[in-house]
Known about the structure:
Blueprint: E1 2-3, E2 6-7, H1 10-30, H2 34-54, H3 58-78, H4 80-95, H5 98-101, H6 114-130, E3 134-138, H7 145-149, E4 152-157, H8 160-166, E5 177-181, E6 184-190, H9 206-217, E7 221-225, E8 232-236, E9 239-244, H10 246-257
Parallel strand pairs: 3-5
Antiparallel strand pairs: 1-2, 3-7, 4-6, 5-6, 7-8, 8-9
Amino acid sequence: MSLLFITLRFLDVVDIFLVAFLLYQLYRLIRGTVAMDIFAGIFLVYLFWLIVKALNMEMLASILGQVIGVGVIALIVVFQQEIRRFLLMIGNRYMKQPWFSSGIFSDSQSPMEQEVLDHIYHAVGNMSKNKTGALIVMARQSELAAVIKTGQNLDAVISSRLLESIFFKNNPLHDGAVVIRHHRIEAAGCVLPITENIFLPSKYGMRHRAALGLAEQNDAVTIIVSEETGEISLAYDAEIHFNLSLVKLKNEINILFG
């Protein structure tokens, strides 16, 4: 297909689509963070360089070209966390696909047993009523080995009474997260990465920021119970869903682990 002197091939359309997709994913990763401002500054410098080149201002174009050339290395250093998150997001997303996760890449867990889920729901419901703060991480494809190492290994059978006792305010492990993997409580008192997203409402504290930070880095699902209000939230796939009823929580988790 051609328009006047412009020739548009099918591969050009694919190229434009892929660039748009990558830019959108990059925007999703850095929106609400300091990296967004840095990226905007770099984009303006690059745009200025293109204008200078178009005007044939050779000296200035040469200087800016050198700056941009060195800037590629600087970008890797500045955006190393965002690049890591982007690669994790791509890996986690495609590892869930049946055509990719079969064979050597297969490490999926079997569906969560309903009895196990019922214990979790019962504990969350009680802690919500009593305004007991809680962070319950449920592993999916990611093994969460690095997170588990930050806490106390338990390898215990899941029960609502055990979950409630872990998050009891006088328990030394209550401030950290519980990690559930392979249908067992693997560890408690675990430390989660903190999100840099500045758009998270200020009324939500470190538990919500930690849950979102984990959701930005892998495919784990985290249940949050607010200590101040008893509100239930759920974080997964780089997003956090606030103020869920127990029924809504059950529906979401049954879909995610069904």
